[in-house]
């Protein structure tokens, strides 16, 4: 027996022993048809594990994970299986942990506007349960009828209304988690010090299993009206979006469909969208009746100045009809019978036209292997989903698809964007991680994984590429992560909070983002904001000569909370070195890799020094 066969045999034996012990804590199955069915996601991507375990309850997850750790068994968690990046890949030698049955809503706290749920609660089911209370959970991905709340958290899901209300990160109050060794931890938005909750959010099931989550709710808007604008060019559409936001009105949603997307949807049902438009933009405005009347008038005025056609929907029937095509785009993709790949890139909002041009240029270059590339997405925050269609029996399709995907992601990064805005890295985008991040940045992320999961047993093969020879030693960074996780992080009073003396301040008004040198003073930043008639929630009204870097590194209480919600990116050093690293960017959405920038909040230099920071801003009314 060779070494590979011997290893496989040992793994099978370990899984058998694990299964026998885990039967006390959950339903265990080796039924091949069940393993096949539960091992694939909504898109048909996945594999077949050796064993499936369904915990008897959320309290059973800890002993199951302890057993997995003891037996050296790899665990792949499964929720709603709506993931779009191959993030759930059970294969031989792994165990599928099916959490979908843990679907109880534990408590709806109407007074404090929050809800406690088990991990398997489906987003749309939660929304239905909240409706009688006049409340909702803001994240509303198009996959809400499939996606679990825990899945929303570990993917940091967005959705059409993230423009106004934020992504999942902005609504998670706390999570109870079982770590890969079976130990339990609770991470809260109110924790002081480094934002470990922020690191767990968007971690794609690689750091821990969520057993319970408490998420914030908001009142359902009294009134919601929808508008549609059709445009002759992508540039006109993007300029119109920028013009709307420049008025100070923040729409609840701004969605985008290009010509190929409109034509593609029309193959399956009559959307009513204008087939001669280059692009259409769907816009929601919501609030009180007075707020909607004001915002709708502003949006309509801007649309009529620029669009070739404008439609307004003020009742539910008309709104449903207007949105039907966009919200059913995923179903249309599956129903097409064609091969497809759903992309997910984010660029600064003002770079959407160039991204659109790059996508269609790519489609033209690879027309021999591809049918077309349709683009839809969340234009309000620059998150686009180029969906590539091809004939499965075309021998040129595979190479054309790979080349097209490479070109689209390269274009996004050249435009200041990122490789994924909300779908995650999964397995499909791992090869792009080394394009998005430097060896140092990858090494820092690997340190996080190794602290949370030293044996590499939780959702292996997802997100991080194989270790390269160029990755530097980040053991000091890992030690700081370990100390933070154990609650033993001590601060060196001599650790520098900032480095480089960067005092530059610049705003991208088309993207509503602000980049600030860490050594710029709060006074100078406020002066700049006033001059440009914008505001930044992270920057206090007073603070004098205190620097922005000092603010971020030492924030507590409400200051820390405002920074958490406004921070987009950070240029930093990694402790033990002087080489700059960048985590996050000016994009409104970025779920590529672990959200390392969160560790630098309130860390007092424990992970390294701050060089510059990027924040969200808004137009002053």
UniProtKB/TrEMBL annotation:
Domain of life: Bacteria
Residue ranges occupied by any FAD-binding PCMH-type domain in the UniProt entry: 45-220
Keyword Flavoprotein appears in the UniProt entry: yes
Transmembrane parts of this sequence: none
Cofactor(s) listed in the protein's UniProt record: FAD
This protein's UniProt keywords: FAD, Flavoprotein, Oxidoreductase
Keyword field contains Phosphoprotein: no
InterPro entries per record: FAD-bd_oxidored_4_C (IPR004113), FAD-bd_PCMH (IPR016166), FAD-bd_PCMH-like_sf (IPR036318), FAD-bd_PCMH_sub2 (IPR016169), FAD-linked_Oxase-like_C (IPR016164), FAD-linked_OxidoTrans_Type4 (IPR051914), Oxid_FAD_bind_N (IPR006094), Vanillyl_alc_oxidase_C-sub2 (IPR016171)
Signal peptide: none
EC identifiers of the protein: 1.-.-.-
Protein name: Putative FAD-linked oxidoreductase
Organism: Mycolicibacterium chubuense
């Amino acid at each position: 027996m060779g070494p590979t066969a011997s290893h496989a045999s040992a793994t099978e034996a370990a899984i058998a022993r694990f299964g026998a012990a885990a039967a006390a804590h959950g339903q265990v199955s080796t039924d091949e048809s069940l393993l096949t069915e539960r091992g694939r996601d909504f898109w048909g991507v996945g594999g077949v594990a050796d064993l499936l375990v369904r915990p008897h309850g959320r309290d059973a997850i800890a002993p199951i994970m302890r057993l997995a750790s003891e037996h050296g068994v790899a665990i792949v968690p499964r929720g709603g299986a709506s993931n779009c990046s191959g993030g759930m890949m059970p294969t031989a030698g792994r165990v599928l942990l099916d959490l979908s049955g843990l679907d109880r809503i534990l408590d709806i706290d109407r007074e404090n506007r929050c809800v406690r749920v088990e991990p398997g609660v489906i987003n749309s089911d939660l929304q239905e349960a909240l409706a009688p209370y006049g409340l909702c959970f803001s994240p509303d991905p198009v996959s809400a009828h499939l996606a679990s709340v825990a899945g929303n958290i570990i993917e940091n899901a967005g959705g059409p209304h993230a423009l106004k209300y934020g992504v999942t990160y902005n609504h998670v109050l706390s999570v109870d988690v079982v770590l890969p060794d079976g130990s339990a931890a609770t991470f809260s938005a109110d924790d002081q010090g480094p934002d470990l909750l922020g690191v767990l959010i968007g971690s794609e099931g690689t750091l821990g299993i969520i057993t319970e989550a408490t998420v914030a709710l908001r009142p359902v808007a009294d009134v919601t009206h929808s508008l549609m604008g059709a445009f002759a060019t992508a540039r006109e559409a993007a300029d119109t979006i920028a013009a709307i936001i420049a008025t100070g009105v923040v729409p609840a949603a701004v969605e985008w469909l290009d010509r190929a997307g409109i034509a593609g949807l029309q193959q399956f049902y009559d959307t009513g969208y204008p087939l001669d438009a280059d692009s259409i933009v769907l816009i929601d405005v919501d609030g009180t009746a007075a707020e909607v009347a004001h915002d709708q008038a502003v949006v309509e005025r801007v649309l009529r100045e620029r669009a070739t056609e404008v439609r307004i929907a003020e009742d539910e029937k008309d709104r449903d009809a207007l949105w039907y095509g966009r919200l059913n785009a995923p179903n249309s993709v599956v129903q097409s019978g064609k091969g497809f790949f759903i992309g997910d890139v984010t660029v600064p909002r003002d770079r959407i036209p160039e991204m659109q041009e790059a996508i269609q240029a790519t489609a033209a270059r690879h027309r021999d292997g591809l049918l077309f590339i349709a683009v839809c997405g969340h234009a309000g925050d620059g998150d686009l989903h180029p969906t590539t269609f091809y004939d499965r029996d075309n021998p040129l399709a595979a190479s054309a698809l790979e080349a097209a995907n490479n070109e689209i992601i390269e274009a996004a990064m050249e435009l200041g964007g990122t490789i994924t805005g909300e779908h995650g890295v999964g397995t499909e985008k791992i090869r792009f991680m080394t394009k998005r991040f430097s060896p140092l940045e990858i090494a820092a992320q690997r340190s996080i994984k190794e602290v949370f999961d030293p044996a590499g047993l939780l959702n292996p093969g997802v997100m991080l590429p194989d270790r390269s020879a160029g990755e530097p030693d980040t053991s000091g960074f890992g030690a700081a992560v370990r100390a933070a996780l154990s609650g033993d992080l001590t601060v060196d009073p001599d650790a520098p909070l900032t480095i480089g003396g960067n005092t530059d301040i610049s705003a991208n008004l088309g993207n509503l983002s602000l980049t600030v040198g860490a050594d710029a003073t709060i006074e100078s930043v406020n002066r700049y904001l006033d001059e440009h008639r914008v505001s930044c929630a992270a920057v206090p009204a007073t603070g004098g000569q205190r620097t922005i870097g000092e603010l971020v590194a030492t924030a507590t209480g409400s200051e820390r909370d405002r920074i958490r919600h406004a921070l987009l990116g950070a240029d930093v050093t990694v402790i033990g070195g002087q080489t700059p690293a960048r985590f996050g960017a000016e994009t409104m959405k970025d779920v590529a890799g672990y959200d390392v920038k969160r560790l630098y909040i309130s860390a007092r230099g424990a992970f390294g020094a701050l060089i510059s920071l990027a924040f969200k801003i808004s137009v002053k009314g």
